Amino acid sequence: MKPSTSRPLSALELAFYGETAEVVLPASYEELLDIVRDAEARKVPLVPAGAGAHAYLGNPPPPDALVVSMERLDKVLRYEPGDFTIGVQAGLSLGELRKTLSEKDQEIPIDLPSQPQGTVGGLVSSAQPGPRRGRYGPVRYSVIGMHAVRGGPSYYKTGGMVVKNVAGYEVASFLTGSLGTAGILLEINFKLRPLPGQKAAGVASFASAEQAWGFARSVRSSDIEPASLWLFRGRDKLHSWPRFLSGGLSGGETRNPVVWTLEGNSATVAWQETQVDTLLASYPSETFTSLSAQELDAYTERLCEFPSPGGEAREDLGIARLAVLPSATQRLMESILQAFDDSELELSIAADALSGLVTVRWSGKQELIEGPVPILSTLVRDAGGGGTLLYLPPSHRRAHGYLLVPDPNAAVARKFLKALDPQGIFSPGRKLG
Amino acid sequence: MFWKRAKLPSQAVPTGIYSELTRWLPAERLITDPSELRVYECDGLPLHKETPAAVALCASRDEVVGVVRWCHEKRIPFVPRGAGTGLSGGATPVPRGVVIDVNRMRNILHIDLENRYAIVQPGVINIKLTQAVESQGYHYAPDPSSQKACTIGGNVAENSGGPHCLKYGMTADHILGIEVVLPDGEIVRLGGPLADNGSYDLVGLFVGTEGTFGIITEVTVRLVPTPQATRTYLAIFDEMSRACRMVADITRQGILPAALEILDQRVIHAVEDSVFKAGYPKDAAAVLLVEIDGFEAGMLEEEESIKRIASDSHAIELRVAKDGKERLQLWKGRKGAFGAMGRIDTDLYVLDGVVPRTRLETVLQEIYKIADTHGVKLSNVFHAGDGNLHPNISYDGRDPDERARVFKAGREILEACVKAGGSISGEHGIGVEKMDFMPLLFTKEDMELQIDLRHAIDPHELSNPCKIFPDSKGCIEVGKRQAHMVPL
Prior knowledge:
Shape of chain A: globular
Radius of gyration of chain B: 23 Å
Strand order of the largest sheet of chain A: 14-11-13-12-16-17-15-18
Helix content of chain A: 25-40%
Number of helices of chain A: 14
CATH class of the largest domain in chain A: Alpha Beta
Mean pLDDT of chain B: 91
Number of helices of chain B: 17
Number of strands of chain B: 18
Mean pLDDT of chain A: 93
Largest sheet of chain B: 7 strands, antiparallel
Shape of chain B: globular
Number of domains of chain A: 3
Strand content of chain A: 15-25%
Oligomer: heterodimer
Distance between the termini of chain B: 21 Å
Strand content of chain B: 15-25%
CATH architecture of one domain in chain B: 2-Layer Sandwich
Strand order of the largest sheet of chain B: 15-12-14-13-17-18-16
């Protein structure tokens, strides 16, 4: 247990919450309830937090907000490797979670960088999709139960510790991805998967985007079940890709790269690799490389980091994630590139061909950094999609909402938020504005 | 009052109900004749019956909206109904209420295989959705045993499971979007085929609310590719504990079969003496149906693992289905098991507890002991792979003493499941049947939170009231229910 009851603001918290923000670290659930009770009485907004790694996400809080970090509540409470379930406190670090699970060759199928920042509570309340989202689904598919604090205050349980359970409402679904607006997460229970027995990955480059997408579509419609399938274009100076990608992204050797990863037992991976070879014969690539285990790890690491600013609040960076149907991903990517053809900004795009999620990063002069936001909003709306503005510099952040396309069901969501937080103190407006 | 609950209004059925509702749907689809209403007095749980004031057989969203708005205006409770195959009384009518039946909304509206989704009306029968896409190599994964009759809307309301949800997930993992008529008649479209557009996961919250958040009028479902290869095995055991150990070993070794189902000897006998005869050996203490699926190339390795584990678990025999016909034969027995138990006695109390898989063996031993203690006829057929037990107690419902013993045994069985770290319902839902068991699992604060969420959408508790959450006041039908049953 950490010795102090407060900690310094992280760089991101400082940038987005302001110098006057204070962080408190309750050591017990009762202490946490006292903090919430006091905040409700004084009408002080609360920002649930872990290590402050996700402070950049969502609409910034009011300036007088109190940051409540769960880092001192960081235990593994129940781990049943034989049952493939684990229950942990929200403040458990992601590094500790991964270490605990990997010792038993298990995982939650959400990829993390090698030195993950942040806590389990942050992982769940931000619910950011990872590289294998298309194959394994959103974060909530792995969540089987929670304990949380609601306004009042009181704490409550939803779900349980078994992988199949329909008793009561799935409140955990609403809390997952809620960015701390629906209360404070205390404990989260997950169902687990075995680590893949075998992994393989490859990258192919194509002379044209059309060929690259044709190949990706053929993979998708074949019998292959890739663990991930991503396409990349452009390059922003703030993010370095592994060498096998970076050349292509700047127009070098590997143009219009497509990267796929495969998982399974040795026979299924080998079979799928032969199928990829067959498809490549129909969509001739300029280059094709199998990735070594180290290269796959490096690629996964960079892809995990792509949608985040890292630990710093950069003034020259913007990031958005757009969601369209997988069949519309190519058209969206091309329309984005076209819209920024003459821009001074450097742009890079990573498109998940399995899920239809397109992450866009841009970097350049601070005075230009807001420019892409309305353009991307229009493009994704015209494509029938939606999305989120993941990062803008603190100086610009308040000018734009978190959701790129307004949520048509915001009114319904607000009714539930009101039930969970009658005083409106938990990260007010962080998601809906 | 312990719970903050809205009270059902106490006035009599409004006169003119018939003429008012025919403003929204044709007279021939509005049932008010008492003899016809009896068809709708219960669902798959005949223990609880109530005659509704009317049944509206809606064929369109507009008709649903019209009836719901009328109910809202008059403060008349309503109960959504699909096929009525639910086993927890989720579609049991409430007094003076209207049943809103959506079976006539049975069209598949849109199929998009490139993006792997379909849009269907709630009355589409589960198996028919798969049949619509299977020739093109896709299927809808959730497969409750009632899939030949149950509807997608009902599946969404209950978050239904089925044998193959072990690998593929529950209904909640396959619903991308829903259109709902809220209890005040507002239509909302939640979610859709897009992934992660950043909004709140309202779909995840609404799935499994058992009709208490309104009526579903359209569903966007996820379709999954049909696996290249399937292998089905029947492991035969002379001891139930060995079957459980095989399940635990398969799980522990990280193998994820498509299905793992156990039937005990009483069920085997019932099945083999019925039209669902599957060739299960009647002298077996238990049989374990194992199904793996995936790439043909990977089948050999998994099959070797299954054979090894079966041997290590002292299976007497491991049969392999040689072709599709044999596979269907093995499944016929499992899927017909509940029906077959009608041979044992006139009534069947189906429990739906869940336990961690590592506790299966010990909890089952406890369950059999409970049955012996109370002298009830217990049989077990269950989804061993995810710990979802179905202890079934056959009894004569006309015998009050036996009924009392059955319900006492049922409560103790669910207590044992919860004590083992499990739950009171894996897939059938709470409905009326398990309301009184909710305090085994949830505290007052836990349930208050859920009721508050329900009130956020339905402050008057018009949509399927008196379900899920127990209350000793406020539900007019509670007194009637207690007359049917011995209090727990």
